[in-house]
Amino acid sequence: MTALLQTIDLNKRFGGLRVTNNVNFELDEGEVHCLIGPNGAGKSTLFRLFLGEHSPSSGRILYAGEDITHLKPFQRIRKGISVKFQVPGIFAALSVRQNLTIALQHHLEGASLDEEIARLLEFLRLTASADMQAASLSHGQKQWLEIGMAISLKPRLLLLDEPTAGMSPDETYETGEMVRALNADGVTVLAVEHDMAFVRQIAQRVTVLHFGQIFAQGTVAEITANDAVAEIYFGHVDHDD
Ligand SMILES: Nc1ncnc2c1ncn2[C@@H]1O[C@H](COP(=O)(O)OP(=O)(O)OP(=O)(O)O)[C@@H](O)[C@H]1O
């Protein structure tokens, strides 16, 4: 497998605090990978390093074999990296359709624009809400519209920061199905996530961060069976048997 995203001895310090600590991480092309870890483990910081919103204190970031360590966020987006953050990135006063039109209008026009909007609305389970103001969507639907904005550029790598935060179990499941469909279409996905049912639904591999370091890595089954991982989350290990 070729690594689509790779970090080499990546470090980020805020003053005396080392938040990313010598991280050597590889994301394979074509996989869905989840990044988990206790609060403050450094997950969001790592995401911001990937996106170019933070510059590393030392180390390198490679994307498709190219050194992108010093590229600006917009340059990384042009290379096919797209992100959905937790903070709202939609135009609340506009309709769902208008939001998607804004995201797509630089690439498509006329009939092909209409066709792509219809396809995205269907994919996002938002066809019936197309002409509603984005502000009046449910929390989960807003998240879906944001996913729609993030995938409108047809990214090669999609970064999702807690995509299911605040969602109902049904919405979370539907989001998982969206991620699986995107991945089946060839999109590589890296998601920061707390909901282990969602992680189980989507992830082929999981990386656990702890104090800014890679603490464990493996399949969902390996990670959930790992006593040391349970220990850092709960401070103790519960065995049913
Ligand atoms: N801009 C900053 N300046 C100083 N400290 C920061 C900054 N950003 C993050 N930190 C610190 O870095 C540590 C890791 O934060 P980060 O948000 O990356 O963790 P996280 O794993 O995403 O946590 P959570 O699960 O709570 O979102 C925390 O101690 C945080 O206070």
From TrEMBL:
Example GO molecular function: ATP binding
Fetch the Gene3D superfamilies from UniProt.
P-loop containing nucleotide triphosphate hydrolases (3.40.50.300)
User: Which PROSITE patterns does the record cross-reference, listed alphabetically?
Assistant: ABC_TRANSPORTER_2
Would you name any one GO CC term?
plasma membrane
| Keywords carried by this UniProt record | ATP-binding, Nucleotide-binding, Transport
Pfam (any one) = ABC_tran
Query: What are the boundaries of the signal sequence?
Result: none
Note the CDD domains from the entry. ABC_Mj1267_LivG_branched
Q: Mind telling me which InterPro entries this protein's record contains?
A: AAA+_ATPase, ABC_AA/LPS_Transport, ABC_transporter-like_ATP-bd, P-loop_NTPase
- Record-linked SUPFAM superfamilies: P-loop containing nucleoside triphosphate hydrolases (SSF52540)
* ABC transporter domain boundaries: 5-236
Is Transmembrane helix included in the keywords of this UniProt record? no
Q: What is this protein called?
A: ABC transporter ATP-binding protein
Q: What is the lineage of its organism?
A: Bacteria, Pseudomonadati, Pseudomonadota, Alphaproteobacteria, Rhodospirillales
